[in-house]
Write a structure and sequence with these properties.
Blueprint: E1 2-9, H1 16-27, E2 40-45, H2 52-63, E3 69-75
Antiparallel strand pairs: 1-2, 1-3
């Protein structure tokens, strides 16, 4: 069983990496880009029987900084 966790900065939190990517894209002529938010994807190989609640607990305790990040869990 696999899970994929998408972690993004919450709205209102500054994203310097996203700003750097936006600036680079504009420098390459991609002026249609109005904003960039950069996040991360974490893929987990899990033992059978692991629940979404287990993965959520992993996110709350380690995988996401819930003060400034939000996350979404996908069970695959």
């Amino acid at each position: 069983m696999k899970a994929r966790v998408h972690v993004m900065l919450k709205d209102g939190v500054l994203d310097p990496q996203g700003e750097a990517v936006k600036h680079a894209l504009h420098g390459m002529g991609f002026d249609a880009v109005g904003g960039v938010r950069q996040g991360k994807v974490i893929e987990l190989d899990l033992a059978e029987g692991t629940s979404e609640a287990d993965v959520t607990e992993m996110c709350e305790k380690l995988l996401a900084n819930t003060v400034i990040e939000s996350y979404r869990v996908e069970l695959l």
